[in-house]
């Protein structure tokens, strides 16, 4: 059976300079794992028994980044499923998109992560080594731009 995980791609909007497009002021939250290859990823984790996918995404975000559901706005109309093998087994990760209500809210990492960064799209794609995550971040950015 495929491993299933869920998470949130979290972004914040900084105050744009008058000459900037609003989308230039968007930053994405990535967490660096404290295990394995120390890769960078949005908060995500495995679905617990009796949980639905979205509950998992919010629980994992609280556990890994210290963010409560009440501090985030879930963005309607965006949901992405990624499929890839992990140690020879299929894995599905479902992501939703959420905006920080207050861009200055403190991030509190769990032991699973050693660092976090707020990154503009280009840098977020450099940190996210996996092509499907880079493509997802670009897709999210396009989605946000199309809503402006």
From TrEMBL:
Family: Belongs to the Nudix hydrolase family.
GO MF annotations in UniProt: bis(5'-nucleosyl)-tetraphosphatase (asymmetrical) activity; nucleotide binding
Enzyme class label: hydrolase
One GO BP: ATP biosynthetic process
Annotated ranges, domain Nudix hydrolase: 1-141
This protein's UniProt keywords: Hydrolase, Nucleotide-binding
SUPFAM superfamilies on file: Nudix
Lineage of producing organism: Eukaryota, Metazoa, Chordata, Craniata, Vertebrata
EC number in record: 3.6.1.17
Reaction catalysis annotation: P(1),P(4)-bis(5'-guanosyl) tetraphosphate + H2O = GMP + GTP + 2 H(+); a 5'-end CoA-ribonucleoside in mRNA + H2O = a 5'-end phospho-adenosine-phospho-ribonucleoside in mRNA + (R)-4'-phosphopantetheine + 2 H(+); a 5'-end FAD-phospho-ribonucleoside in mRNA + H2O = a 5'-end phospho-adenosine-phospho-ribonucleoside in mRNA + FMN + 2 H(+)
Any one Pfam family match given in the protein's UniProt record, by short name: NUDIX
Function: Catalyzes the asymmetric hydrolysis of diadenosine 5',5'''-P1,P4-tetraphosphate (Ap4A) to yield AMP and ATP. Exhibits decapping activity towards FAD-capped RNAs and dpCoA-capped RNAs in vitro.
Names of required cofactors: a divalent metal cation
InterPro entries: NUDIX_hydrolase-like_dom_sf (IPR015797), NUDIX_hydrolase_CS (IPR020084), NUDIX_hydrolase_dom (IPR000086), Nudix_hydrolase_domain (IPR051325), Tetra_PHTase (IPR003565)
Superkingdom assignment: Eukaryota
Protein name: Bis(5'-nucleosyl)-tetraphosphatase [asymmetrical]
């Amino acid at each position: 059976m495929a491993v299933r995980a869920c998470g949130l791609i979290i972004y914040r909007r900084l105050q744009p300079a008058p000459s900037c497009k609003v989308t230039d002021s968007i930053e994405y939250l990535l967490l660096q794992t404290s295990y394995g290859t120390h890769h960078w990823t949005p908060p995500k984790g495995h679905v617990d028994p009796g949980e639905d996918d979205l509950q998992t995404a919010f629980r994992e975000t609280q556990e890994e980044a210290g963010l409560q559901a009440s501090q985030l706005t879930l963005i309607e109309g965006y949901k992405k499923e990624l499929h890839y093998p992990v140690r020879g087994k299929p894995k599905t990760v479902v992501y939703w998109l959420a905006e920080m209500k207050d861009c200055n809210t403190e991030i509190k990492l769990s032991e699973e992560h050693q660092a976090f960064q707020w990154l503009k799209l280009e840098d977020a794609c450099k940190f996210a080594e996996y092509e499907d995550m880079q493509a997802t971040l670009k897709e999210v950015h396009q989605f946000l731009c199309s809503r402006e």
